Amino acid sequence: MTPKASSSDLAGCVGALNGSQQSNSDFDRRVRHRRSNLKSRNGCAQCKKRKIKVQCQYIVTRHTIRCGKQADNFEIQCNEETPSCGACTKSRLHCSFKPITPPATPASAFASSSTNLAGTLSDDQLLNLELLHNYSTKTYATLSDRDGIRELYQTNFVTEGLSHDFLIHGILSTSAFHLGYGQQQKYQSYLSQHPLESHSEAASLLAKARLYFLAAHTHYNTALSSFRANLAAITPSNSNALFACSTVILVAALARPRHLAVDDGLTDDDDDDDGDGDDGTAKAIEWLHLVRGTASVLEPTRPWIIQGSMRLLTEWEPDRDSQAIGEDTSSQLKQLSLFIAKNPDQVIRRSCEEAIDKLRSCFIWATKKFYGITYTFSWPAMVSAEYMTLLSLRSPEALMILAHYCVLLYRFDHFWYVHGWAGYTVKAIYRNLEEEWRKWIEWPMTMIGIDTAACMIVADRSQLDYRPV
Asked: pTM for this one?
């Protein structure tokens, strides 16, 4: 028979059971708050060296267990974050998780940013390189008869041109005209030496000349347009380039063909005159205005230019030695001046007498080896605006003085860009003068070697006739 438990025994069992359950509850609570093992061997090299644990773990305190609240303070340990772990970021150390990028070398930086520079050059690029090479090795030496100025053309002009597009276009235009002029000479020489042979070689020379002249006109128009736009904002930084550009534009303007073959693709003007029945006088006067434009550019830039590398272009102290001009020239200018003095028109008399006086000075300066061709071009810049107006109106007095200036210009006919201009201008003047005035240009015609019959010959444009003499 099973003994019955007394009430006291039952109470004891219940108490024991309750105590056991409470003990188990405390155990479970402690187990829940035990930190799990989150150790890792994947920390960064810096943290391993400093023996910093991996992963951020809360610091569990007895207060946390007691009240069940989350701790506010915690250890910053290696959290394996990339590109830099928390510990290295806090300590401002370079983390091994962050890859080290080697500094870019100039070669690698150039290769990454300029992958197209090593490509095949186009025909236009090759042509421009040819033009720049020709200018730096040949053309520059033909632009002046003074060594110091030649050096400026070769070095300073190109250096300035690399920073100012209007100047580099002017340089390339001048070089292209120079090459075209050389090809023209080869073309004419070949025809004279092989009159009865096939002209396939001549056709090749002609095509090459046209290519150069086309490039020359393209660069000339671009340079002139950009040059005029920059004249509105002359500063110390662009003053040298503007002055240099005015110089090469003048050379290019003189080098521009006065007659163009009908089928050369450079012009569609098939008339023998300038479109106004002028027989070429307008072209002769046009470049005189360009010379004056050079002088007008110089005026506002002079304070900067005389302090810069191009001051040599502005340095001159001419003397007035009356014996240097020569008796023949002095006599002719004196006779012309006496004739002008009889003119009743005060404006014509004053402006023309002044022009003759300036021309006499230029004859003196041009005889000096130090000055040469540079100051032959000073006369158009020195004459008055009234005289230029008379030229535009085809005043006989003004045209006669211009014919005498061509005698001075003819002294430098060996310069390729001047070649032919003296004769061309005198012929145009002769055709514009009435018979009674023509006797006053007999001396210039004799000095240049032009006869009356040559003045009335109309240029033949059936061939390449870029630079008629």
From this structure: 0.68
